[in-house]
Known about the structure:
By secondary structure, the protein is mainly alpha-helical. It has 8 helices and 2 strands. It is about 60% helix and about 5% strand. The protein is rod-shaped, with a radius of gyration of 32 Å.
Amino acid sequence: xxxxxxxxxxxxxxxxxxxxxxxxxxxxxxxxxxxxxxxxxxxxxxxxxxxxxxxxxxxxxxxxxxxxxxxxxxxxxxxxxxxxxxxxxxxxxxxxxxxxxxxxxxxxxxxxxxxxxxxxxxxxxxxxxxxxxxxxxxxxxxxxxxxxxxxxxxxxxxxxxxxxxxxxxxx
Length: 171
């Protein structure tokens, strides 16, 4: 071998550094997952049903924390349940319900703790005739109604004006 031949070769050099653009396919997938999760999170947080439910639960906590007498707690709880039901189910389904029809509707929509005597005592106390103070059951029934209303919607029998459970077992 001739040493002059080696001198004729080009000098050694490193390849060019890898650029940051375009990113590898894994980064594209990660970016897509990140964008979709942010969109899903924003959509979930701005859900009007969730906001309405959270506001009603905050109001219920204020009622629970108050040191009012049984009649005031019954009125506040009854009004909260009624306002929430009007928002969730609409005026045509809820506004005309009173007495036992109203209690049946609330019970079928998730307020199971208001079934029977506790529900009747709440209505009696709310409208002036003070009866037993079952505030823990009233508040538990209201909380159950707020958390489950809309997910477990009762069917309304317009002829009778009462809520009924079509296709499911009656409690």
